[in-house]
Amino acid sequence: MSRVEVKSEVTGTVWKIEMKVGDSVAEGDEIMILESMKMEIPAMAPEAGKIVEITVEESVPVEEGQVLAVIEA
Amino acid sequence: MSFEDLMADFAAREKKALAMGGTEKLARRREQGLLNARERIDYLIDENSFLEEGMFGTSSVVPEDRDKTPSDGKVTGFAKVEGRPIAVASNDFTVKGASSSLTNMKKIGHVKRVATERGMPIVFMGESSGARMPDNMGSKGMGALLGNDPTQYVRMRETPWASAVLGPCYGSSAWYTCLSDFTVMRKGAVMAVASPQLASMAIGETVDPQELGGWELHAEITGLIDTFAETDEEALDLVRRFLSYMPSHNQETPPTAPVPAGSDEASETVIDILPESRKRVYDVRKILKVILDQDSFFELKARFGRVAVTGLARLDGRVVGVVANNPLVKGGALDAHACEKITRFLVMCDSFNIPLLMFVDTPGFIIGKEGERQRAAAKIMNFMTALQMFSMPKLSVIMRKTYGQAYLNMGGGRNSDEVLAWPTAEVSFMDPAFATRVVLWGRNEEDEPETFRKVREEMEKDGSVWDMASSFSVQHVIRPQETRRYLARLLEFHEDRRHGGIGRHALSNWPTGY
Question: Of B362, B465, B390, B356, nearest to B420 (Cα)?
């Protein structure tokens, strides 16, 4: 078991959180959608596992590299 | 000596050379699942096609090493892959860590020279501890061994070079890797200027080998490798795959292949992959896979500069180079790493007579402090210079957005020979929303909604593809489903018949890393 951080690839705002703590994810699944540069940018699971933490809320601003969620892989 | 004795002596010498560093060392490798230097060559090439050069070479610097250095630790020669000749140099780590010394340097120099003059790709199998000690030590060692080949590190891209990093690669095996057109690294291998042990000694703290030069570092941060593999075998399969897209040399066109069944049918599904909302992103690789010949897309540097995708592929059986923006990552906004990746890819395609297809959907270059520190402005110009000097046919497809300087970098205007656009294309200097804010700098939308609406309308005008088609700034507006057919037909008409499909190669001496 390892903790994998899901980091934001962009600076923007959290638009829609699509999953919740406890959900299982496959690599590449969309956990939430951010809004940046007028685009909807998905934050995806870098590895398969289970979401153990979501560290942001909808409509809050996020920085590039900021941790958005944690997966137990 | 009688003939019988001569033959017995010959057989004994041959056996000794083929025994490499001895059964014990070879057995240990086998236990670790690693192929040895000769097995690697056999795995890569067509059966029984190896013609060895310098099998009986040994150390010629240190007399007591003469009996301990079969083939002087580097196995070299010529062979065939899919019936086509190549040159190969495989490091034998069981012999003094495949370190470089006088004889093996001459062997490598020889196969490189012949490959370049006669037109064969070169495959390097990297696993070397660097320069041999004490051979290279002291001013005498340095003077006698190193620096006696003034063209050793010249890269004019006369023939393709492929490297497999299959173990520790320090010194010259790292240099040849960096000079190659294609590099695959086996997980667990290390490529660095000097070994972790030496690095630890130099800085006085323990250096982790993977952190110093492992596959993740080179795949994601340095971009010095194109792909990676789990095993030696998988890595060598990828070398063969790379060679299947390459001509033997720069005066030849790449080999064609039969068109896989189902390719035309698959290309009809493009429209199902593209989201209807202009704000939604998608993985451009899914689009490429259905437009190109089935299973022909060979992505390079997939984890580096991910906002853009580069790879070799075939379209209607012809080899093509593909550059695409990937909206899935950062909306497809181009960054400094993507510029480096694309530039290097353009140089390779132009050098080996491979036409270019560009698939465009980018909001522009990422702007901000980070990019400027990475010298983004200069990288954008490197990319642009390479594109304008690119002499093979260039076709671009505007799928959705293309703005500003990125419009030019991605083949806009006359920067490609033909510009195709889907009806979803949007072209302008910048996103209309940003343009509105620039024009109304310092004013508040809530105070003057009407002004903002008017300016925005003004900024949005003429952004559609029909305005571009009307001024012949795009040559073809096409349905997405027709992209494959259009590109295939255009490639046929754009074939450079006057020069037999051979480019001008003005980029051939571009630095391999910069």
Answer: B465
Interface of B with A (CB under 8 A): 277, 279-281, 327-331, 333, 363, 370, 431, 433
- Which of B280, B333, B370 is nearest residue A37 as measured by Cβ atoms? B333
List of chain A residues whose C-beta atoms are within 8 Å of the C-beta of residue B280:
40
Residue B482 binned pLDDT confidence (cut-offs 50, 70, 90): very high
Angle of helix B376-389 relative to helix B336-351, nearest 10 degrees, comes to 20
Alpha carbons B299 and B321: distance in angstroms, whole number: 10
> Shortest Cα distance from A56 to chain B (angstroms)?
19
Q: Where are the beta strands (DSSP E) in B317-455?
A: 318-325, 356-362, 394-403, 418-421, 426-428
Please state the φ and ψ torsions of residue A22, each to the nearest 5 degrees.
100, -20
Distance from CA of B216 to the nearest CA of A (A): 14
d(CA B129, CA B41): 20
Contacts A36 to B, Cβ<8 Å: 330-331
Closest residue of A to B432, CA-based? A38
**pLDDT digit string, tens, across residues B168-205:** 999 889 999 999 999 999 999 999 998 888 888 888 88
**B126, B173 Cβ separation under 8 angstroms:** yes
Angle between helices B232-244 and B37-44 (to 10 degrees): 40
Q: In this complex, do B331 and A42 lie within 8 Å of one another by their Cβ atoms?
A: no
Tell me the three state secondary structure of residue B299.
strand
Residues B291 and B487 sit within 8 Å (Cβ to Cβ): yes
What pLDDT, on the 0 to 100 scale, is given for residue B92?
Answer: 97
- State yes or no: ipTM above 0.90: no
User: Checking phi first, is residue A56 left (phi over 0); if not, alpha (psi -120 to 50) or beta?
Assistant: beta
Q: Which DSSP helix (H) or strand (E) runs through B211?
A: helix B209-213
Amino acid identity, position B190: V
DSSP letters, B324-338, are EE-TTTGGG-B-HHH
Query: How many residue pairs bridge chain A and chain B with CB atoms within 8 Å of each other?
Result: 30
Chain A residues with CB under 8 Å of B329 CB are 9
Cβ distance B171 to B133 under 8 Å? no
Q: At what angle do helices B102-118 and B138-145 cross, to 10 degrees?
A: 20
The Cα–Cα gap between B502 and B510 comes to 18
